[in-house]
Specification:
By secondary structure, the chain is of the alpha+beta class. It contains 11 helices and 37 strands. The longest helix is centred in the last third of the chain and has 16 residues. It starts with a strand and ends with a strand.
Length: about 600
């Protein structure tokens, strides 16, 4: 097996050389992080437990990507995201946290000279093996390493109809998954509720098929990982896999019999921490938010200690309409799906747009007016919106573009059809009756405000409220923030995000703002709750060319950070800079261009 050679120049391992088994196509990636189960362990508070990974595509070419770390991964001065892997070439300088190393290429054979270099530092596992010093009368300073016997492969656990599926969180909770589908998130409407600020309202989805148990991230802020691999598409889970939702880790187990109320701790040395499930924020400003909590209740316990717990039964659902069909495996794959995507190999190296649909409309009809004044605005519209996509909808005025966006945003109901957004079905008159009033459903309004950002350049601002209060309003509706002061701080951050950097602008009322500033305030308001889906109706309209360019750059940055954006525009220049274009004419889709 080829080996990857690394030279560390900064950080705790500065001056060390390392050769590790290189990642092979379909094999396990090389993980970097603070966790002891990482391939390369770097003991630094500036690194996350799983910080970055190097993997190979189907051709054997090496790539590096961030694994959802706090402080990021940088290659040659450029930030690497967890959705856009960067190819590695010899001589590249990589920074993970406060550690810098150079990628010195791939070694296929080992000369004696290389062996001496590797003797100083081989792998994190070999470095931690106990050693026996030579007898004192021997002058040689060399160390003799105990022979390490290879571990027998763990027997494969077969999933059957009688199997018990467990998800054991490292905070002490254990969930028994029964059913065909369950969602994971912070919101009380989920099947598995994890009360943590790192968890999105609706974070991930578990699905059981004939091929096994799959997990899929639902466009969350801090993502979902399986053994360090981003689950931006359905990932097959195996017994013993480590699943991470935000900064909450869990062990996936398939058992042949129901477990008792006790289980051993997964880590060989310490427990991540014990905390009350109602406590929300465990970190202090400036600390690593993954496991820096050292408050009451955190103890270092040995493996022998057991925790008394109670299984939380997750019945799940038999399948929502939003659930896409998962790939069925017609034969046993040659390589395990552990740590690998189920997508085509080339898609792993070109992960810019996810394979998961965050929104879909099917057979959508909408009529405006009644009787003689009735006019068909949308006719049998069918389209999907994929995670990480910037989709542009174009068409002449009156073609139904704005109505389509408002229906997807849950602002107005359609006459009939199916509208699914972020795994939730939006009611229509056909399903709920002609007296349907979306605004009367407070729970729906709260969900909509929390998960969907809607931006219309023709919207009006409250003339009596200053800019920062305009941005706070969606937070108040969604119940975001600990108190009013917290919401105010978030509002100032959103205003700075959209480019309104002058502090005095936040306290100005709409009459004191120019046209561009008003539009940026409305964009900040749409981003108030950090929604995973942003629906924009003419976001670049009524702006100067310079301001339009800045707003479009912001939209692209949001896409790179994992957002999904649908944009209505009549400007062909901006449309052709999107990932995909859909053209609407007289309420019907007449063309699509990638």
């Amino acid at each position: 097996m080829p080996r990857i050679r690394l030279t560390f120049s900064e950080g705790p391992r500065a001056g060390e050389y390392l050769e590790v088994d290189g990642a092979e196509p379909g094999g396990t990636p090389v993980f970097f992080g603070r966790s002891r189960d990482s391939t390369v362990t770097i003991e630094s508070p500036h690194l996350s437990r799983r910080h970055a990974e190097i993997f190979a595509d189907s051709t054997g070419r090496l790539f590096i990507r961030d694994a959802g770390s706090i402080n990021g991964t940088i290659v040659n001065g450029q930030m690497v995201s967890n959705t856009s892997p960067t190819p590695l070439t010899t001589g590249d300088q990589v920074q993970v946290g406060d550690t810098v190393f150079s990628f010195d290429g791939i070694v296929t054979d080992h000369s004696p000279a290389l062996g001496l270099r590797a003797n100083r530092m081989t792998s994190s596992l070999e470095r931690e093996r106990p050693t026996n010093p030579s007898p004192a009368h021997l002058s040689s300073p060399n160390l003799m390493t105990r022979p390490v016997l290879p571990k027998p492969p763990a027997p494969e656990v077969i999933l059957t109809d009688d199997s018990y599926i467990y998800l054991s969180l490292h905070n002490g909770q254990r969930y028994l998954f029964q059913g065909e589908e369950a969602t994971v998130g912070r919101g009380q409407g989920n099947d598995i509720v994890i009360d943590s600020n790192s968890i999105s309202r609706q974070h991930a989805r578990l699905q059981r098929t004939a091929s096994g148990i799959f997990v899929t991230d639902l466009g969350s802020t801090n993502k979902t990982f399986v053994n360090g691999v981003l689950a931006d598409g359905p990932l097959l889970l195996h017994h013993g896999d480590l699943v991470r939702f935000g900064d909450i880790e869990a062990d996936f187990h398939i058992e042949n019999e129901r477990q008792t109320g006790r289980f051993s701790l997964p880590d060989q040395t310490i427990v991540e921490g014990f905390f009350d499930s109602t406590q929300r924020d465990f970190t202090q400003p400036g600390e690593d938010s993954e496991d820096s909590y050292n408050g009451p209740g955190l103890e270092k316990l040995e493996t022998a200690l057991d925790i008394d717990i109670r299984d939380i039964r997750v019945v799940g659902r038999k399948g929502r309409q939003a659930s896409d069909a998962l790939p069925e495996l017609t034969s046993t794959p040659k390589t395990s799906a552990r740590g690998t995507d189920l997508r085509p190999p080339q898609a792993i190296a070109e992960t810019f747009i996810g394979q998961v649909e965050v929104a879909r409309v099917e057979g959508l009809y909408m009529t405006e007016g009644q009787g003689r004044a009735a006019q068909l605005m949308l006719c049998d519209v069918r389209m999907g919106l994929r995670q990480g996509e910037l989709l542009a909808i174009v068409g002449p005025s009156g073609s139904g573009k704005s109505e389509l966006v408002q229906i997807m945003a849950g602002l107005i109901p359609a006459d009939k059809g199916r509208v699914t957004v972020l795994s939730r079905n939006i009611p229509t008159y056909e399903t709920a009756g002609r007296r349907l009033n979306l605004e009367a459903d407070k729970e729906f309004v709260r969900w909509r405000t929390l998960n969907i950002g809607y931006f219309n350049s023709h919207s009006q601002l409250d003339p009596k409220r200053p800019a920062y209060e305009q941005v706070m309003q969606p937070m108040e509706v969604a119940g975001v923030g600990r108190d009013n002061r917290d919401r105010q701080e978030r509002a100032f951050e959103r205003l700075q995000l959209v480019g309104l950097l002058e502090p005095e602008i936040a306290r100005l009322r709409p009459i004191e703002l120019n046209r561009t500033e008003k539009q940026l305030v409305m964009l900040a308001r749409a981003l108030a709750n950090d929604p995973s889906l942003l629906l924009c109706d003419e976001p670049l309209g009524n702006l100067t060319s310079k301001a339009s360019n800045e707003v479009f750059k912001l939209l692209k940055r949001l896409i790179n950070n994992g957002k999904t954006i649908l944009m209505v525009t009549q400007d062909q220049f901006w449309a052709h800079n999107a990932s995909r274009i859909i053209e609407i004419l007289d309420g019907a889709i007449v063309g699509s261009l990638s």
